[in-house]
């Protein structure tokens, strides 16, 4: 009598919602599960391994993080998608309306048109540096179509082929860099696969023309003059009805 053949143990089916592990035709193992994403939704994620044991371990780790409220890495996020999410869910609840409005202008006018299509996790310091270099050399009149919105007979520069080269100020470049840096820092805090690449790029602070001020001797002379004016005001108030001191001078509220 032939010995009975040993049957392979049947694979236990996982409960619904606990993910699945299977082997592909090329021999690799795949762990698949629906996990928590940074925007609060759930999405399907696949984790690859060379063995069933390793795939099961990755599945357990992913499900454990999701149950603890830790979002999975969102490698599909673009810079545009995250910037809009950041404005709505991070900036708006925590900042003043004017701050949210200013950030929104920078995001929609400068950041999204230049960096919006890039994958968030692939943004590098070189990308940021090249973007800022382009920004410094971009004519704002051409960018916003200022001359093109004028009546045809009043157009005088960019709309008729004579660029006025009104490039951004150093302060504007600094503001754009600051908004991008804050957004990428928030992406790291949201557990997204982003790096603080904007901090790797240094932007020069704007310089302003400031008067040299007054010296010690001039300050003392100004103080003596102010005290003299105060004494004159007091004397006028004492001897002249209706005189009121204002900025070192007398303002007359009525005739004597």
Features:
256 residues; alpha+beta; three-stranded antiparallel beta sheet; two-stranded antiparallel sheet; 44% helix; 11% strand; disordered C terminus
- Label the overall shape: elongated
With strands numbered from the N-terminus, the spatial order across the biggest sheet is 1-2-3
Q: If helices are DSSP runs of H or I spanning 4 or more residues, what is the number of helices?
A: 7
User: Which class best fits the helix and strand makeup?
Assistant: alpha+beta
Classify the beta-strand content into a percent band.
5-15%
Helical fraction: 40-55%
Biggest β-sheet description: 3 strands, antiparallel
Enumerate the spans where pLDDT stays under 50 for 5 or more consecutive residues. 5-10, 246-256
- N- and C-termini, Cα separation: 139 Å
Question: What letter string, H or E per element, gives the SSE order?
Answer: EEEHHHHHHHEE
Number of strands: 5
User: What is the average per-residue confidence, as pLDDT, rounded to a whole number?
Assistant: 78
Taking Cα atoms only, what radius of gyration do you get, to the nearest Å? 34 Å
Structure explained in plain terms:
This protein has 256 residues and is an alpha+beta fold. It is built from 7 helices and 5 strands. The strands form 2 sheets. The protein has a 3-stranded antiparallel β-sheet with strand order 1-2-3, covered by helices on one side. The N and C termini lie far apart (139 Å).
